[in-house]
Amino acid sequence: MAFVKSGWLLRQSTILKRWKKNWFDLWSDGHLIYYDDQTRQSIEDKVHMPVDCINIRTGHECRDIQPPDGKPKDCLLQIVCRDGKTISLCAESTDDCLAWKFALQDSRTNTAYVGSPVLSEETVVAASPPPYTAYAAPTPEVYGYGPYGGAYPAGTQVVYAANGQAYAVPYQYPYAGNSHQSPMPSFSFSGMCIRIFISQFKVK
Which of 26, 88, 33, 27 is nearest to 57 (CA)? Predict the structure, then answer.
């Protein structure tokens, strides 16, 4: 961030109305900061011109102020703030006063940096991330086989091949019971009794 204008100005104190020399820096973001001296070690105050300032007076427009000894009234400058505070200043010359007036007016009407913080020259500003386009999440695909529409012969089981083709394979022992139970061979109870009876008769 760069300086728009810097230099010495006389500032009238609020209570004692005495003139004090301060160093002023006007930043490109619209902040006017003044210090005790040019070393910028101690900040006296700061004004955000686009937000805090409501009017700028120069020369004979200034109110309730007398210039310091040896200075004409055309060197006077007043910054009227929104909170009712008025900062009374005196420039080194009439030309310097006009230069400050124009610089302050420009910073007051420049709204591009409203709300921006004051940054030093060593401050690194991180770049914002590039814009991105949001994409909808892909719909998960479910793979399966539909119901087999054909008829199966009795006592057969259906086997699916890797390509999804259905094949009917006959059971060795057809069973129509619970699918979780092992198939059992079918037989006739009455036939078993007859075979047992005949075998006993042959033994005797």
Answer: 88
